[in-house]
Amino acid sequence: MRRVFFAILLLFISLPVLAGGTAAVTDSARILLINPSQGDLDSMIRMIESGTIPLARPLLTAVYGAQVERPVESIRDRIAARGLPWVQVEVIAGDLEPETLFGENPCTPAFRRLFARSDAALFFGGDDLPAACYGRETSLLTFLDAPQRHYFELSFLFHLLGGSQNPAFTPLLEARPGYVVRGFCLGMQTMNVAAGGTMIQDIPSEIYKLRSIEAYIALPEGQRHDNYWPRLDPHGNYFWCHFQPIRFVAKGFFTRELRRGRDEHPAVCSSHHQAVGKLGRDLEVAATSLDGKVVEALTHQRYKNVLGVQFHPEPGAIYEEEGGGHTTSPADTALVTLHEQIRRQGSLEFHLAFWRQFAALLQPAE
User: Fold this and answer.
1) Do 102 and 158 form a contact (C-beta atoms < 8 A)?
2) Which residues fall within 8 angstroms of residue 136, CB to CB, at 6 or more apart?
3) Average pLDDT, whole number, for the chain?
4) For residue 303, how many other CB atoms are within 10 A of its CB?
5) Span 165-188, pLDDT tens digits
6) Mind listing the pLDDT tens digit for each residue in 286-308?
7) Nearest one of 127, 331, 354, 341 to 243, comparing CA atoms
8) Cα Rg of the chain (Å, integer)
9) Geometric angle at alpha carbon 87, from 187 and 95, rounded to 5°
10) How far apart are CA 307 and CA 351, in angstroms?
11) Against a cut of 0.85, is the pTM above it?
12) How far is the C-alpha of 106 from the C-alpha of 126, rounded, in Å?
């Protein structure tokens, strides 16, 4: 009987771990993808399958706030149709309002549970943050589309990092300072506001004092942060982003962790019209635009594996030849893919190094 008991016990121990009601097996990283679009999720899956993100058998959990407008059921169906047992979806209930974001609220228990059973959280790009969330009136040039998404992500990042809005709150990362957080574009902006920072609501008009698209397009490429040609010529076949060189801060994240040279200025996929204003609590600048006027990356003084970048390293098309070609402006005569454009500008290795470093943080100890 004792042998039978231990055999049954061993069987239960070896069963897949249940997470959010979905069976999943992993001997590697457990990564939360916060409110990803279908495209965001597809890119992450593709980069893992291709080895761009060199992780073996990770568990990806796409986490959606119940009030966030995402096609969750169609995303679930697509995952099921592809037969991906290492990808799952979880929906978090709980109403959030601007006055409840930066402290205990209905989502707090879920945030703590998600944190406890994961090793990393990724926050993706999107529309502008509500200015009221950082104590400002809304600019005529601010575009609001999904406030409930912003409330969810602001509150989750506040729970992870803490902020000056509520200094008495103990951040979740105090218990695990090595937890990995990455924010892309809006994700970095949300990180800053969650920590108590503010935003510049329009780069062309507030930083460069310009009043027309033509004047902005005439700026040197290092001072442009989006491709405005589609707004002048909506039927043109242009890239969705501008390929912008950035500048690393001396002894910052990129020179220290990625071993990049101080004089390197890799071109990145840039698509934003807002910028970080006042820095949130304990955040510091890791990269800027070439003229130093726009923050391009943030790190955390207390939690070394927290990084926000104002650019987009997460589209899978950067790393593989796929899709049709595009042009950057009417002056271009040839169509090229996103991958080819990044490769031609000598920045592919920088992007690959970004994901190698991320994966290395999540490798199990030998």
Assistant:
1) yes
2) 198, 199, 201
3) 91
4) 21
5) 999 999 999 999 999 999 999 999
6) 999 999 999 999 999 999 999 99
7) 341
8) 21
9) 50
10) 14
11) yes
12) 24
